[in-house]
Design a protein that fits this description.
With 226 residues, this protein is an alpha/beta fold. 38% of the residues lie in helices and 19% in strands. It contains eight helices and seven strands; from the N terminus they run βαβααβαβαββααβα. It has helices spanning 17-31, 52-56, 59-71, 91-107, 125-144, 169-177, 198-201, 221-224; strands at residues 7-12, 35-42, 78-83, 112-116, 149-153, 161-164, 202-209. A seven-stranded mixed β-sheet has the order 3-2-1-4-5-7-6, sandwiched between helices. Helix 5 (125-144) links the parallel strand 4 (112-116) and strand 5 (149-153). Helix 1 (17-31) crosses helix 6 (169-177), helix 3 (59-71) packs antiparallel against helix 6 (169-177) and helix 4 (91-107) crosses helix 5. The longest helix is centred in the middle third of the chain and has 20 residues, at 125-144. The radius of gyration is 16 Å and the shape is globular. The structure holds zinc ion (ZN). Zinc ion binds next to loops.
Length: 226
């Protein structure tokens, strides 16, 4: 039996997306001893929140590095693509994104990818672009290199897998608090935008690729521990 840790990549568009929407599952994977990687497509320079000079000079990347470190992701498992924030759905950025994600998944021998769902979680075009690029990249890898199972965040909450807070809310808030330019008071749940409050209770996921033939016959080990 192969006891090597799974290699799980969490892919998002913006520097605070992991902490906001995927951090319970990241904590669960890390607690299970799995190798966790994080991919951030942009440096979040298009935000309308925070000091404009700080944001323009890619200061949000440092906030992301601090937030992901606080969750326990090793520094050498982080990848920042520095693509154009707010423009990932444009054809030339989409092409770069898909190519970069393919290289990232292949280089790190990723076996499971977890990203935003088909609706991007909140219909943000950049979020949807990362979902689509991840699906295209994994479909290509399955043909030429190795299969990668993809799970997508389901914001509606009726999904095949739920990762509940399990007492980890303080860790999620501490990671969000690293994003001082965006959430200066994020140590309190009340300071998180209400649109994201359901992600403080639980994160839910559906398998996107390959489609499960018979759920829940073969859930990936990454979810068996939560
Ligand atoms: Zn985002």
């Amino acid at each position: 039996m192969n006891h090597a840790p799974r290699r799980i990549a969490f892919l998002t568009a913006h520097p605070d997306d992991h902490e906001m929407m995927l951090s319970y599952q990241m904590l669960a994977a890390l607690a299970a001893g799995q190798a966790v990687f994080a991919y951030v497509a942009t440096d979040g320079e298009a935000t309308t929140v925070g000091d404009p000079e700080f944001v323009k000079n890619h200061g949000r990347r440092a906030e992301s590095q601090a937030g992901l470190a606080s969750l326990g992701v090793p520094a050498n498992h982080l990848h920042y693509a520095a693509l154009a924030d707010g423009a990932l759905s444009k054809p030339e950025q989409t092409t770069k994104l898909q190519r970069d994600i393919t290289t990232f998944l292949r280089t790190h021998h990723i076996t499971t990818a977890i990203t935003l769902g088909p609706d991007g979680g909140d219909h943000h075009p950049d979020h949807i672009a990362v979902h689509n690029a991840t699906m295209a990249a994994t479909a290509k890898l399955a043909q030429i290199h190795h299969p990668v199972a993809v799970w997508g965040l389901n914001a509606a909450g009726q999904s095949h897998h739920t990762t509940a807070a399990h007492g980890h809310l303080p860790q999620k808030l501490a990671a969000l608090a690293c994003h001082k330019s965006q959430f200066p008071l994020a140590r309190n749940a009340a300071d998180i935008p209400s649109a994201y409050h359901h992600f403080l209770q639980a994160e839910t996921y559906d398998q996107c690729f390959p489609k499960p033939l018979r759920w829940p016959a073969t859930p990936p080990p990454t979810f068996a521990t939560s």
